[in-house]
Amino acid sequence: MMQFEHNDTMMKQKLTILAVEKRTTMISRNSHVISKALKNFLSASVMTSLAGQLAVTTDAVIVSHMVGPDALSAINIVMPLTMLFSCASILIGLGASVLAARAIGDRDKERVNSIFTIALIMLTAAGIAVSATTYIGSHEIAYALCDDARIAPYAFEYTRIITGGALFLIISNGINYFVSTDGNPGLVTRGVAAGAVANVLLDIILVGQMGIAGSAWATIVNYIITLAVVSTHFFRRGSSYRLVNPLKGLGSHIMRNIYEGLPLMLGNMLLGGAVFIINSMILSAAGADGVYIWSVCLQVLMLTFVILNGVGNAMLSIGGVLMGEKDYNGIRILTRLSTGFVSATLTLFVLLVLLFPEAPAYMFGAEGAPAGIDTTTPLRIFSLLLVPFAVTLIMRFLFQILEYRILSLLMSVGQLMGIIVTLWIFIRIDPDILWWSFPVSAVVLIVIQLAATSAIYMRRRGISPVTLIPDEPEGERSIDLSIAYDEKATSLAITKIEEFMGLCGVDTRIADRLKECCNEIMHSLIIGAKRKKRCFDIHIRIIGNDVHAVLRDAGHRSDARLLPATLPATVEHKYMYGQNVLFVQLKEEQT
Length: 591
Description:
The protein is an alpha+beta fold.
């Protein structure tokens, strides 16, 4: 027994030395390949968000100028209802796509197809139920949202039409998540862009003829066109999704789907509820003019969601696959890059709002507002919320990836309840300073979040104190490297991999087979490498007697043709996020 403990301790010491060497050599893991994946996904995802937000912003701009500020307030008043529609697609579609991403990373095709089939059925059923129910009660819903004599008639006219199109919104958004997760965010961008362009054109034509009702019809057509374009992915040969018997594992998949999507769905639902409560509080404290100022601030917040939604979708999709691979270093790199991008971009955006607050005010119809309304000061104050709000949101996405669902849910509740409670306090103190409640609440939440993660870290070591990312998969050993495109670097990498497997006690037959596979793949990558290429990544996990390896090469799909035809069936290739990803699985019975 003592000898066994001694040998185990020696092996851990050797692995620690190897890990130190790995970090100090030219082949240590770097952010290059993950950065390429993030940029590739982010460019498509941000363009998707931009196109989607263009439709929303166009509605606001055209309606505010052609119909009036009260019509803009009406769209803002109805926003909690449209957020409720999105809750169904988030609960089912986004939750299922996160599960599918992990299954893709784990190479479980049967589970991927089952998740997709059940989610598609659930999206359709939920869309029909929500659309029918809200359409029947559209009059009551509109006047429950707002009974102000100036705003309520516009709200009812918009609600009556938009509820009929809830089916298309729910299915379209749900399908978008699946296609993005499957490594084709560019198609989602094209679909959303096509719908947004149609939305803008129809807004220009219909709002002048039908008023605010024309805006609602344009939005419905937007989602129909997006759905038609994006659905073409499922007929492509490279699609990971196939329809299968939905009864197999139905109950367990539905429960896991709901469990996965619940924190994200509740976050969106709470956002809708928070908007409703804030609308009511500001209407009571500052009247219809205050609601208009809040509507402009909310539109500015929605503009930042072009970046936040893009980064969030990228994190959930790329991070979900990395989580399936147990590539925690990759998740760490992804989080650092995402947080840095969001902070830098939104800091610049806030500076522009602070310097030129008249621009967004004019964009959303300030010239048609009653005389004496000051929108510039509230906009400047409100903009201070944006960066801390965004950082908290990024952490929520990360905790969802890491399966800290309760923490993600509590952060969703805290983020919105903090705004409401702080707003209530500031209104009680002095209604004239109510706009300061927004940045104050965001800073307080960051402090609470840091306290919560620190408490979790104190109870569970082996994780990062702020991000909670594990240092190593539990019960597994792994090594990950970034390798330059030259023979010397690959030879060094093979030596490191061989040493690592020897220290882990991997069967020599499996170790030799892995070396053979990696040698063939690396040699082919070097031959096909272009000058601009810097390095490729390899991540190897030892799970019991099995070895799982993933190689990522950032490049065009045509690079896959350079791979040797002699590779065994245990190696699979998939092109996703602008990368050729090769999955290698070697089991003891295969040797």
